[in-house]
Amino acid sequence: MEKIAVLGPRGTFSDSASIQYIKKFNNDLEQIYYSTIDDAFHSVGSECEVGIIPVENTLDGYVQRTLDLLLEMNVYIENEISIPVQFSLISNTKNIEDIKKLYVQFKTNGQCRKFIDSLNDVQIITTESNMESFDKIKEGNIGEAAIIPGHMLEHSSAPFKIKNVTDAINNHTRFIVVREGALKVDIANNKDIKVPLYIMPDNDRPGILFDILKEFSLNKINLVSIMSRPTKLDMGTYNFYLEINGDFKQKEKIINTINKIKEDYKIKILGFYSVN
Ligand SMILES: O=C(O)C(=O)C[C@]1(C(=O)O)C=C[C@@H](O)C=C1
């Protein structure tokens, strides 16, 4: 049975995403839990064949670390799944004014901004997963609170709880399924195509971005997003992460357009797969 690397422990949204992914695609996968996104990602190709990794959120955008690891590691994206995400608060205090310390996962912080800003004089402790935040409260230090996955609220015996502290009701996180090795194109008829890729300009001159975007525009290829990530070599030098969304009939056109851009720029295609 193949193993899938998941940000754990059990109860995280990554765990929920892995359960839904296994169910939806009828995959026979054993979940292996890791305490950080980095550890889960790095296990792909050694302890695990695949990994399920958060990449984008409705309220807080891309997970920057995931974008960097996609470039650094020898992996490709073979599938994706989105799940709804809502958060609640638990605390061992009697009321909200007594909270002195708040545990919150780094990506959760940007999804509960309004609530966190409404708290007075609270020390924020950033965690690696929402279940790490949940577990911290069990240590029993008075004056502590944690933002946890909404579905874990009933599993907490904390004396003080607030249901729903997310900034918006419509909030989803998208997870990608990554596998080690060179890209495999996996397209089903009648489904949309997703193609995330990196374009890495090796110099800086006026019009580079225009040159690249022009090719997509001329070929009527839909770009869903574009992100700049630092090359980490020199200040002010960036790689571009792009996502293409298209109809399956556009497959050849997408390949030809990427090949055209490849004549002038280095490209890493991160995935070429069907969605929904
Ligand atoms: O900590 C979790 O529950 C996770 O699965 C991680 C993660 C993320 O890093 O994006 C997943 C979904 C939410 O966006 C918040 C946190």
From TrEMBL:
Signal peptide: none
One Gene Ontology biological process: L-phenylalanine biosynthetic process
Alphabetical list of Pfam families matching this protein: ACT, PDT
Alphabetic keyword roster: Amino-acid biosynthesis, Aromatic amino acid biosynthesis, Lyase, Phenylalanine biosynthesis
Class of the enzyme per the UniProt entry, highest EC level: lyase
Domain of life: Bacteria
This enzyme's EC code(s): 4.2.1.51
PROSITE patterns the record matches: ACT, PREPHENATE_DEHYDR_3
Residue span, Prephenate dehydratase domain: 3-180
Catalytic activity: prephenate + H(+) = 3-phenylpyruvate + CO2 + H2O
A Gene Ontology term for the protein's cellular component: cytoplasm
The ACT domain, residue ranges: 197-272
Pathway the protein contributes to: Amino-acid biosynthesis; L-phenylalanine biosynthesis; phenylpyruvate from prephenate: step 1/1
Record carries keyword Amino-acid biosynthesis: yes
SUPFAM superfamilies: ACT-like (SSF55021), Periplasmic binding protein-like II (SSF53850)
Entry keyword Ligase: no
GO molecular function, one term: prephenate dehydratase activity
Descriptive protein name: Prephenate dehydratase
Record lineage: Bacteria, Bacillati, Bacillota, Clostridia, Eubacteriales
